[in-house]
Automatic annotation (TrEMBL):
<dbReference type="InterPro" id="IPR001807">
    <property type="entry name" value="ClC"/>
</dbReference>
<feature type="domain" description="CBS">
    <location>
        <begin position="523"/>
        <end position="581"/>
    </location>
</feature>
<keyword id="KW-0812">Transmembrane</keyword>
<keyword id="KW-1133">Transmembrane helix</keyword>
<protein>
    <submittedName>
        <fullName>Chloride channel protein, CIC family</fullName>
    </submittedName>
</protein>
<feature type="transmembrane region" description="Helical">
    <location>
        <begin position="69"/>
        <end position="90"/>
    </location>
</feature>
<feature type="transmembrane region" description="Helical">
    <location>
        <begin position="275"/>
        <end position="296"/>
    </location>
</feature>
<feature type="transmembrane region" description="Helical">
    <location>
        <begin position="12"/>
        <end position="33"/>
    </location>
</feature>
<feature type="transmembrane region" description="Helical">
    <location>
        <begin position="239"/>
        <end position="263"/>
    </location>
</feature>
<feature type="transmembrane region" description="Helical">
    <location>
        <begin position="342"/>
        <end position="361"/>
    </location>
</feature>
<feature type="transmembrane region" description="Helical">
    <location>
        <begin position="200"/>
        <end position="219"/>
    </location>
</feature>
<dbReference type="Pfam" id="PF00571">
    <property type="entry name" value="CBS"/>
</dbReference>
<feature type="transmembrane region" description="Helical">
    <location>
        <begin position="111"/>
        <end position="131"/>
    </location>
</feature>
<keyword id="KW-0868">Chloride</keyword>
<feature type="domain" description="CBS">
    <location>
        <begin position="460"/>
        <end position="516"/>
    </location>
</feature>
<keyword id="KW-0813">Transport</keyword>
<keyword id="KW-0869">Chloride channel</keyword>
């Protein structure tokens, strides 16, 4: 007990420096992102995207792009730079950073600080040059890399390394989105579709809160988005509208998942040099950006405008068209090997979905029945939950980003519908597993679970070879050699177990005396037996306590009637059949 308390305290203390370093790198990433955006989009394309309230977005914004048709060239150049850096220095920095961290958690793969720093640079270039990508991917991988680096440096156990990896992942998210509680929950939820990494929850909270405090010292503590939503009225029209939003969100999420993996497979099979793939993807994403500004960069500023009900520069048909175009842009950017994350673009897709439905419903009803800000936020939550199967962390994350806690009732309604309709078969995170029992990291837990749920009668050998007490040792030896067995139960005339003879017992008898020596003279009397309804974990404990390799199975301990025999080999074969060893 004392040792366990020490281990918990050690991880909590280590979560603090993980949070500090994650917070500092989050600040570095945000500054790099601003620099890259001004360099590529501002100076070359002549486009300054709107910003959300928490990053300096003002009340007024004038939309203008000087050189719109240079956008594909700029996004292609950004993709080429990323392709070169990734190919030469760190292949793991390509694609969705959160997914790389999830894979490293389950399979014990290394994530170094070099990979984390390079992820910061490549993601800033990808997003800053106009690629549709998110901030959570780079910061998840950066934080996870910091946690894993601490674990390696201090020579911690694999379990401790993984907990720090998860804590670092949550810290990165909490810092970059100014959402410390969501970061803590995400550190436990993101690895599975319907389970939690409970051990990482408290270290994740500590690390995420520390990272939020450190990052906020430089960039402020204001929420990312400013909203003016009010507590819902629960009218029939509103309830019906949010039910429809949940249904639509599920289909949008499924379409996004399908498109993302289709494009990813297309680029995987594309017969060109890996360095060039992000450039091609960037070029195609740039074409999407020509069609709609919502497909350029992370577009949080546009979502901020939707939350305020401002649709000045975008017509309803263009907003509606932006949903598939942003999905394509996301798929081209990340599916080709560009760097970043899926969370940001997924939120944008969800926000557009909610905003579109608010416009449509208000037009049909002839008045402002639906608050555009509320529907935009709920759309963000519903689509990403359906696409990533992380309902709890998503709803808290968006609530913290917007301080729109009044949206929770309708958000829960829409989220539950979207999450259940979308299902758990496939998410945007390729390496996200269903639950802990599927994770190689928890393989020992899986063994214990299987052993505890399987019964002796399912595994035992029923056609048992048994001997009478007066049988000779030579007969026992010949049976063992012929049948390749190492133990034979000894039973009386009533088929009651009275002993057991093993190979080691037989070998103690001199060869010339085997024919005349009876098995009752060398057997182990009253051997430990097991019942058919025992679970295999109980049997393994018996084997471990007494050093046995096998045990007779009896109908009950009163009659001691032999019904089978079970051995370590039987249990091992069962575990192999279940694919756990």
């Amino acid at each position: 007990m004392i040792k366990e308390i020490y281990e918990i305290r050690k991880l909590l203390l280590l979560s603090i420096p993980v949070g500090i370093l994650s917070g500092l790198l989050a600040v570095g990433f945000l500054y790099s992102l601003d620099f890259s955006t001004n360099l590529f989009l501002g100076n070359i394309v002549g486009y300054h995207p709107p910003k959300p309230f928490g990053e300096g977005g003002g009340e007024t914004y004038v939309f203008f792009i000087s050189h719109r048709f240079l956008l594909p060239l700029v996004t292609a150049i950004g993709g080429l730079i990323v392709g070169i850096l990734v190919y030469l220095f760190a292949p793991e920095a390509a694609g969705v950073g959160t997914d790389v961290a999830i894979k490293a958690f389950h399979y014990g793969l290394p994530i170094g600080l070099k990979s984390s720093i390079l992820k910061l640079i490549t993601s800033a270039i990808t997003i800053g040059s106009g690629g549709s990508s998110g901030r959570e991917g780079p910061m998840a991988l950066i934080g996870a890399g910091i946690g894993r680096w601490f674990g390696e440096a201090l020579k911690l156990t694999q379990e401790e390394k993984n907990i720090l990896l998860a804590a670092g992942l949550g810290a990165g998210i909490g810092a970059v989105f100014r959402a410390p509680f969501a970061g803590g929950i995400l550190s436990a939820e993101v690895f599975y579709k319907e389970d939690f990494e409970v051990e990482a929850l408290i270290p994740g909270f500590v690390s995420s809160i520390v990272a939020y405090i450190v990052a906020g010292f430089f960039v402020g503590y204001e929420p990312l988005f400013k909203t003016e939503v009010v507590f819902p009225k629960f009218t029939t029209e509103e309830i019906a509208g949010y039910i429809v939003l949940g249904i639509v969100s599920a289909f949008i999420a499924k379409f996004m998942i399908f498109t993302f993996y289709s494009v990813k497979n297309l680029f995987k099979n594309l017969k060109i040099h890996p360095i060039l793939k992000p450039a091609v993807g960037g070029f195609l994403a740039g074409i999407c950006g020509i069609l709609t500004p919502l497909a350029v960069g992370n577009s949080y500023g546009w979502i901020q405008m939707f939350m305020k009900g401002e649709f000045l520069y975008l017509s309803f048909p263009l907003i509606l068209l932006s949903i598939p175009v942003v999905i394509l842009s996301l798929s081209f950017t990340l599916g080709s090997g560009g760097s970043g994350g899926v969370f940001g673009p997924s939120l944008v897709v969800g926000g557009i979905t909610g905003a579109s439905l608010s416009i449509l419903f208000n037009d049909l009803l002839g008045g402002p029945v639906f608050n555009p800000g509320m529907m935009t936020i709920v759309g963000m939550i519903s689509v990403f939950t359906a696409a990533a199967s992380a309902p709890l962390s998503t709803i808290i994350l968006v609530s913290e980003m917007t301080r729109g806690y009044d949206i929770l009732p309708y958000a829960l309604l829409s989220l539950v519908i979207a999450h259940n309709l979308a299902g758990f078969e496939k998410t945007l995170f390729e390496y996200q597993l269903l639950n802990r029992l599927e994770s190689p990291f928890h393989r020992d837990e899986l063994k214990a679970f299987i052993l505890k749920t399987a019964r002796v009668k399912e595994v035992m050998t029923r056609n048992v070879i048994a001997l009478h007490p007066n049988a000779s040792v030579l007969e026992a030896k010949e049976i063992m050699a012929k049948k390749f067995i190492a133990g034979i139960p000894i039973v009386n005339e009533k088929n009651q177990v009275i002993g057991i003879v093993t190979t080691s017992d037989v070998l103690k008898v001199e060869p010339e005396k085997m024919k005349t020596t009876k098995v009752f003279e060398i057997m182990t009397p009253k051997p430990a037996c097991v019942l058919p309804d025992w679970n295999l974990l109980e049997v393994m404990k018996l084997f471990a306590n007494y050093g046995y390799g096998r045990a007779p199975v009896v109908s009950d301990f009163e009659s001691m009637k032999l019904v089978g025999i079970i051995s370590r080999s039987d249990i091992a074969r069962y575990l192999i059949k279940k694919n756990v060893i």
